[in-house]
Amino acid sequence: MKPVHPIQRFVRHLSSHPWQVRRYFSAAALQRIEQAIADSEHQHAGEIRVVIESGLPVAAVLQGVSPRQRAIQLFGQLNIWDTEHNNGVLVYLMLADRDVEIVADRGIHRHVREQGWQHICQQMEGMFRSGHFEQGITHGITAIGQHLAAHFPPEATPRNELCNRVLVL
């Protein structure tokens, strides 16, 4: 990602509002993403959560909070770290910064490592640059699901530890 001047970043975040997410993701698209999460989670014992944020609060921008820092913060706030097998994964899209981050709990992270997550992020960002936002998210869900299925096969009695609803901030 190309560096952005702090003033440009501030203006971009200041002018961002949650309703702008609808420019890229219709209600139907969000439902299809939620269904993709549910379908993926039938193939493994992991948990996937998607958060799309239009822009950071002003205080966070002034403090220089990066998309990665915000993703880690949300990972904790949403208790994604608290799954039975430590295999929760957060897909975080920051529209104002045009950035996607994946934060994974230690159970799955030790198998995929940062390079694997970055590869998925790069693929998603390429789709976003082409205007394919829904497909970018669903591609990420599928790729993450493949890693989870390889290391956490489905359980006899499936459980859904995290909400599949896309959180729009």
TrEMBL record:
Annotated Pfam families: TPM_phosphatase
Gene3D superfamilies: 3.10.310.50
Top-level taxon of the source organism: Bacteria
Residue ranges of domain TPM in the record: 24-146
Protein name: TPM domain-containing protein
Stored InterPro entries: TPM_dom
Naturally occurring in which organism (per UniProt): Methylophilus aquaticus
